[in-house]
Structure formats: structure tokens, C-alpha cells
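Customer escalation, tier 2.

The customer says the design service returned an amino acid string that "doesn't look like it belongs to this structure." They asked us to rerun it and document both sides in this ticket. The original C-alpha cells are below, unchanged.
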């Protein structure tokens, strides 16, 4: 079983083993099979072309899937069916579930304006 790394937007601190034990005493570690971990990391490595980014995204998806009671492989299958930039919106949602509420992520949304509206606005 592979243990999922902790992800988030808080800075990483150097913590000794005793502090780490007591800080995580009531937290259950998220574990998935090595095959599932490799499949999710492989999907995101193919999508991002960056191994480190793929590991962080995979950890976020695996942690969120465990918290929501979802099958991570089913999520990857659904991600494969998304078109264009739809995956960015889903990943933003998943990453926001693991973040502190004071610094949520967003996506760029540039709606197309009608040429008639653009034409009617005075410069």
C-alpha cells in the first residue's frame, strides 16, 4: 500500500518524529494500492508533462476521493472523458476541498461578448 503525501497551501515545516506523531495522532493516513497510485500519477503526468506536479495533483485527488468515499480510478475515467479546459474546473474544485478557506483557487472565465454589445459601448 502506498501512503498518500500531505498536500495543501500551508508552508511545509521541519517537524521531528515526536511532534509529527502527536500532531497526526487522530488523523488516519490515506492508503491506496500501489497500482491505483501509479495509475493516478501516470494520468496527471501525461496531462501536465511534469512529474512533481502530477504527484501533488494525484495526492489531492486520492485524499479527496478517500474523504468523499469515491473510487479514485472512477474519477480518472471521468477525467479522461472531459473535453478541453473542463478538467481545470474539476481540479480546482478538488484542490479547494483540501485548502484552507482563506486562500481558495479560482479559474479564469472570459465570456464571449456579442459584437453588438461591444460596438455599442463608447470608448
Amino acid at each position: 500500500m502506498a501512503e498518500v503525501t500531505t498536500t495543501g497551501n500551508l508552508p511545509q515545516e521541519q517537524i521531528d518524529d515526536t511532534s509529527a506523531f502527536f500532531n497526526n495522532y487522530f488523523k488516519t493516513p490515506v492508503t491506496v494500492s500501489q497500482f491505483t497510485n501509479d495509475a493516478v500519477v501516470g494520468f496527471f503526468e501525461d496531462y501536465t508533462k511534469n512529474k512533481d506536479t502530477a504527484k501533488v495533483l494525484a495526492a489531492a485527488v486520492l485524499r479527496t476521493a478517500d474523504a468523499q468515499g469515491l473510487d479514485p480510478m472512477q474519477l480518472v475515467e471521468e477525467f479522461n472523458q472531459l473535453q478541453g479546459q473542463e478538467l481545470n474546473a474539476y481540479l480546482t474544485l478538488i484542490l479547494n476541498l483540501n485548502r484552507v478557506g482563506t486562500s481558495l483557487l479560482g479559474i479564469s472565465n472570459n465570456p464571449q461578448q456579442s459584437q453588438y454589445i461591444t460596438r455599442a459601448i463608447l470608448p
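Tier 2 assessment: The sequence is consistent with the input. Residues 56 and 94 are 12 Å apart (CA to CA). The chain has one domain: 2-120. Sent an explanation to the customer and offered a walkthrough call.
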